[in-house]
Amino acid sequence: MEFWLLSLPLDKTSVASLEKLKRTIAKTNLATCGKLSIPELKVGTLDNLLSVSDNLSQLDTLTESVIRKTCHFMGEVMEQASDKVLENGLVNGVDLVKYVTKFQWDRAKYPISLPLRVLADNINKQVSQVDAEFKSRASTYNSIKSSLHCLERKAEGNLHTRGLNDIVTREDLLESEYLTTLLVVVSRGDYKQWDSTYESFSLFVVPRSSRMLYEDTQCGVFSVTLFRRAVSDFRERAKQSKFTVRQCNMEVEEKHLQEIQRLNVDNKEQNVVFVRWLKVNFREVFVAWIHLKALRVFVESVLRYGLPVSYQALLLQPDRKRVKRLRQELSSLFMHLEPSAMSNKVDASFDVPEIVQQEYFSYICFQINTNMLDTGK
Predict the structure, then answer these.
(1) pLDDT tens digits for 324-352?
(2) Helix or strand holding residue 232 (H, E)
(3) Cα separation of 306 and 304, whole Å?
(4) Per the omega criterion (within 30 degrees of 0), is the bond before 308 cis?
(5) Relative to the CA of 238, which of 39, 80, 165, 339 has its CA 20 to 30 Å away?
(6) Cα 277 to Cα 131: distance, rounded to the nearest angstrom
(7) Global pTM value
(8) Residues 296, 356 contacting (CB under 8 angstroms)
(9) What is the dihedral of CA 170, 175, 176, 179, to 10 degrees?
(10) Residue 69's pLDDT band (boundaries 50, 70, 90)?
């Protein structure tokens, strides 16, 4: 869901244009329109405002990226569809759209008695800390997931490459000072050839020692017992007959299985903790972001419209199919604020802090997109 956060001065002409805008919206359904309550903050000096404006722009970008990353990972870790993820992304018990439309400045968390720079620095510290911790937790999560995926791939391959811990038991293997058991992968179409030839691969093969331990749709795994001294010769003869001799060390196989089990436990425990952390910090950073948007509106309103502070903050929810028409209506109604803005291009000689926006309008406008899974915004 996309919102436009507008700021308009309260001079006579602008107020008249604002009323006309409300009537037009009501008749044409170009958007829904509501007020956004922003308290009067400490203004400070012009130089301070210019510096804060630039910092807020960069912080806005960082904050939104952190929100989107946490939301994306929430969906990945929870393995849920996007609508279910957004259901878990509640802010103060309500969904994102309702929080934005019913926004109230949190005076306890962001005291309005603090200078603008301090408020901006506090949000910056909060977001940067969450971003740093997110990177650390995401790295741990990805490392465990990657290790588990690698081990599981080895366990789920074909019989020529996969682990044999769930196929072979210690009882299947005869191991002594002189004798050993080899495991051989034989294609289903070559079973008869195997039965009739394996004893001929070496004089030291124990007669009739071959047993099938497992088969799938393509191959079977056979055991065969022989003297240790004949292993190399047997392996070479089997290879010539296109039979694959598998190395099987039960201690290694058991350690492999134990490692998969350990990683599965670690992964589940990590997921529970990570999801809880993601939910909490998604909520906290989203709250900070909307306060940051309100802070930007206040700062830019003072810079653009001057003192004393006199402006109206509006929250528009445009009809997605009629965005162009709404922009045209706004440009027409408020062209008196900045005629040069009608081209939607900034004159490089025109010193306005808000030139970091992709588009420049005669009115102040910031976008808020609550669909945090929409990579295209």
Answers:
(1) 999 999 999 999 997 564 444 333 333 44
(2) helix 231-240
(3) 6
(4) yes
(5) 165
(6) 12
(7) 0.75
(8) no
(9) 150
(10) very high
What pLDDT, on the 0 to 100 scale, is given for residue 7? 96
Are 363 and 7 in contact by the 8 Å Cβ rule? The answer is yes
Residue pLDDT, tens place only, 151-172: 777 667 788 878 787 788 888 9
Cβ 7 vs Cβ 313: under 8 Å? yes
- Tens-place pLDDT, residues 299-325: 999 999 999 999 999 999 999 999 999
φ and ψ of 160, to 5 deg? -80, -25
Measured distance CA(134)–CA(284) in Å, rounded: 13
* pLDDT of 245: 94
Tokens of 58: 């960069």
Q: Can you tell me the distance from the alpha carbon of 16 to that of 14, in angstroms, rounded to the nearest whole number?
A: 5
Q: Quick one: tokens of 4?
A: 């436009």
| Strands ordered across the beta sheet of 31-35 | 31-35, 311-318, 2-9, 364-369
Q: Which amino acid is at 58?
A: Q
Tokens of 252: 């290694």
Own/partner contacts of 166-174, CB < 8 Å, gap of 24 or more, are: 166/257, 167/213, 167/214, 167/221, 168/213, 168/214, 168/221, 168/223, 168/248, 168/250, 168/253, 170/250, 172/211, 172/213, 172/223, 173/223, 173/248, 173/250, 174/225
Task: Say if residues 346 and 355 touch (Cβ distance below 8 Å).
Answer: yes
Q: What's the CA gap between 301 and 283, in Å, rounded?
A: 27
Helix (H) or strand (E) holding 129: helix 116-155
- How many other CB atoms are found less than 10 A from the CB of residue 174? 13
What mean pLDDT is reported for the chain? 87
Indicate the residue type of 12: K
Look at residue 107 and give its three-state secondary structure: coil
Whether the predicted pLDDT of 173 surpasses 50: yes
Residue with the two structure tokens 């001065």: 9
The two structure tokens encoding residue 224: 């065969």
At 220, give phi and psi (nearest 5°).
-130, 155
Cα separation, 150 vs 157, in Å, equals 11
Name which of 31, 90, 99 is nearest 314 in CA terms. Answer: 31
